[in-house]
Amino acid sequence: MRRLVFVNVLIFAVLVSAIGLAYYGYSFASEVSSRERAIISDTMRELGQEKVDGIESQILETDRKVFDSIALEPLPDLQAVVKTHGAAVASVFVLDERLQVVPGGYATTRSREDGLAFRDYFVSQIVPTLPLAAQPLRTRGHVHGGWGDRPFLFSFTRRAWGDRTYYVVLEADLSHLVGAVFPQFFGVRSPRLYQVVDESGDLVYGIPFSDRAGVLAVELPFVDTVDHWTLRVAQKDSGAQLARSRRQVIDFVLVGLSLAGILAGLGFLVLAIRRERRANALKSDFITNVSHELKTPLSIISMFGELLASGRTRGAAQATEYAEIIWRESVRLARLIDNVLDFAKIERGVDAYEFAEADLGEVVERALELSRHRQQQAGLTVHATIEAGLPPVSLDANAYTLAVLNLVDNAIKYAPDGERIEVALARRDDRLELTVRDFGPGIEAEEHGKIFERFYRARAVRLRPIRGSGIGLALVDHIARAHRGGVSVESEPGQGATFRLWIPAPPPGEADPAGEET
After folding, report:
1. What separation in angstroms does the CA of 128 have from each of 92, 166, 172, 380, 463?
2. Which of 237, 306, 401, 450 is the 20 to 30 A CA-CA neighbour of 492?
């Protein structure tokens, strides 16, 4: 009992440890992966923010210089101002209080014709949408959006000259920004990839990477300039990211396999323990039953031997009767011992059979004669039918006799009193078949295969006071297979049972080849 409790506690402890190990491994792998991704994400966010701040600082500084260089009177040469301070400025507008372009208050990098067309378009379509009047004095405002089918970035400021108010509006050169400024910041060699996308997600600058599997990317908006655009940053070594993802998956799989292995081992251990307990119980029953089986003939032999030794007989006839009883019980005892010894050989894997050519009919008749006393005691009649002219076969006569005795003894035990047993030996095609039929309680269909297992006894038999070792049919099956044959049973509850023991028969006109010693 203590051993059982200890084993159960050990199994429970191993199971809890396995689950704890799996949980810890999974949690640790997830935490490491999350920390790694967080560190990479924070690093990319810091670097991306530096890029955004650098680009916007450059644009803001240019706007400030241009704004500070323009006074209403005298109005400077705007073309010279742009060339001096604003490489990324495409156009400059100076507007009066009525939001009209003052004389000489327009300069552009476009051709003359395109410049005049754009000035008219700017005054009529764009100026009304700009919040110029609401802009505080000497502060910068900006609008980034689309007019027509083109994006624009306008920076503006409201200034005062005496009692007059004027406005300076700068059109940023977005082509220069994308073609020159962005490469200056993002074109350096780096383990990261940069791209700029618009509000629709369309690519403005850089190479696509948003659809790549396993890519970790961060997004940072532009605030004071092109605020409809977003900078996206990702690791260039996507292979390393994929490798890390695969490593995480492998870690999870290994943890799962380890847990499954531990659970499978525990399952096999539990099954082994259950099988061992069942085997021990069966062996205990076997020892008890065999002890009883051996004790009965020993008691009879002892009793009649004592009567003979003390001379308590009425005459020579009674002494002869007592001697015959002793002889029969000794034969029964010898058979029981042979069963146990043969079974022990099977358990050790040492099966020694001595094959020789023999008449199978004579072997069966001798076995029936040896069991005659048991038949008479049980009040049973054995109807034996042995086909004449059966060919001699190679077999171990003693082993085959033991098999027949076990089948007949099995029928005697389980057939009701006053009934009969039918035994038949005949040739069936390529085999010699022995049939032993009883009219006992029968055997359930699901137990037909189990009754040939060692120590197994049918359920109906276990409920009745019938002694048995549970190894007789197992020995019959082993002897049949050793003779290259087999044994089977046909039975229904309440209809008795028919056992068929067969071995190969030599072809007509030929002797059976000598069996090999097993």
Report:
1. 17, 15, 18, 124, 106
2. 401
Chain Cα centroid distance, residue 297: 58
How many residues are present in the chain?
518
Q: What percent of the chain has pLDDT over 90?
A: 28
**DSSP classification of residue 137:** B
CA 146 – CA 174 distance, rounded (Å): 12
Tokens encoding 298: 């020993």
pTM summary value: 0.48
CA dihedral angle for residue 272, residue 273, residue 279, residue 283, rounded to 10 degrees: 140
Q: Are the C-beta atoms of 477 and 456 separated by less than 8 Å?
A: no
**Tokens for 260?**
């499954």
Give which of 60, 66, 131 is closest to 93, Cα–Cα.
66
Question: Residue for token digits 């403005």?
Answer: 204
Strand order across the beta sheet in which 101-108 lies: 101-108, 89-95, 164-172, 150-161, 140-147
Residue-level pLDDT at 514: 39
Q: Is 450 exposed, middle or buried (0-12, 13-18, 19+ CB in 10 A)?
A: middle
Placement of tokens 């205990």 in the chain: 284
Q: What is the tens place of the pLDDT at every residue in 395-444?
A: 888 889 888 988 988 888 876 655 788 999 999 888 999 999 988 888 88
Burial 164-192 (b: 16+ CB within 10 A, else e): ebbbbbbbbbbebbbeebbeeebeeeeeb
Q: Which 3-state string (H, E, C) describes 361-415?
A: HHHHHHHHHHCHHHHHHHCCEEEEEECCCCCCEEECHHHHHHHHHHHHHHHHHHC
Instruction: Summarize the confidence of residues 127-150 as an average pLDDT.
Output: 92
68-127 residue pLDDT tens: 999 888 888 888 888 886 668 999 999 999 999 999 999 998 899 999 999 999 999 999
Q: Are 458 and 489 in contact (CB under 8 A)?
A: no
Burial class (CB in 10 A: 0-12, 13-18, 19+), 316: exposed
Residues 189-210: pLDDT tens digits?
777 888 999 999 899 998 887 5
DSSP states along 207-222:
---TTSTT--EEEEE-
